[in-house]
Amino acid sequence: MNLALIDIIALVFFVTVWVTYTQFARIRARSTYSLSHILRQLRIDWMRTLTRKEHQIADAALLGNVERTVTFFASSTVLVLAGVITLLASADKVVEVLQSIPYTADTATDKVQFKLAVLSLLFVFAFFKFTWSIRQFGFVSVLMGAAPQYRSTDFTDEQREIFARQAAKVIDQAGHEYNNGLRAYYFALAFLCWFIHPYLFIASTAVVVLVLYRREYRSKVLRALLATKGWEPGPITDNGDAS
């Protein structure tokens, strides 16, 4: 199999943009208000409140809802992966369908098989991210069970603060892994365009990055979440880490 130069460029562009944006989002969150930044602060607030409540039934229910959502995506990923593998075994039929679509680029069977194989790797990556997120949310359940009790005098305010921050950090890591799994889905949608044309593949990859950036740094929900702390979108101020 010999990929055309434009196909190689499109694939390299796809991988580079995905990796670069992931690193960019992680670094930028340290200096600019984003969904990940405000959610980290709210998770700390949540765990602080947890250590000062007599009952954690509602908190356990909230955590269970999030964990079920991640489990749903993990299960769905297995089904999607099974479908992609099935298509891999019937690549000739996929070629027939692609040839019926106008303006479709080269649809040789070996190239379609290669693209399906790469697509399956994307969903394998997403599956690992989702399952690791589920495990980490399980760790949070243990932490919630071991949280300092409301009436306990064995813990100082400083110890409660340390517990709240470390527990929130575990939730934050679980949330990041969940986000990485969802991001794989977004990029997988862009990858599908490669079956049509490499130029469309490049364009769709750029669109996905723009959508992710806007939702992370410019969305209305970000403004609403920041408003709960009296913050505005933009560079993090001195008060940004005061919680």
Automatic annotation (TrEMBL):
Keyword Plastid in annotation: no
UniProt keywords, alphabetically: Membrane, Transmembrane, Transmembrane helix
Listed InterPro entries: DUF599 (IPR006747)
Gene source species: Pseudidiomarina donghaiensis
Protein name: DUF599 domain-containing protein
Highest taxon in the source lineage: Bacteria
Keyword Membrane: yes
Transmembrane segments: 5-24, 72-91, 112-134, 185-213
Pfam entry (one): DUF599
First and last residue of the signal peptide: none
